[in-house]
Amino acid sequence: MIDTTTVSTKDELQQILDLQKRNLKQHISEAEKEEQGFVTMSFSMPMMETLHAVAPSIIIKDDHNVIAYAIVLLQQGRKAYPALEPMFVNLEKLNWQGKPLYHYNFYIMGQVCVDKGYRGLGLFDMLYLKHKEIYQHQYDFIVTTISTSNLRSLNAHKRVGFVTINTFTDNLDEWDVVLWDWS
Question: Which of 26, 53, 67, 114 has its CA 20 to 30 A from that of 38?
Fold first, then answer.
């Protein structure tokens, strides 16, 4: 039985890390990256525990197995993952609808991934719909960054309702900053 919910156990956090590891761009072929997409950042259990202590992420489970996740990264979690600092610095420079981004109440999608055996079933959209259901009354929008070479992810985010507001480059990659406005 497939269920969309929030993380509630350390085992679920470990399953997120395992799914992440299988989909890191350095662990898959060029053809798979191009066709299926990839994740860039590698999280650790202490990072995940810190982030989830602030706000639980959304997962989809098939029975007891985590088959998809979308990590919530509140601004309070900024120090948990120093490699994301260039993203935060870039966000500080951006505007949305004529006002600085930080004049709004928003959070960041830390990472999203669907297990290979479950792709094409609408789980990506289910993750984001659950995000909206849970967090839209607290936040104006959600922001994330996507490698400009990850066309599958860019297209999936666009389909959900995200719009590109900026492109920047750091020491890891070139990124599109995308935003889904819930107002």
Answer: 53
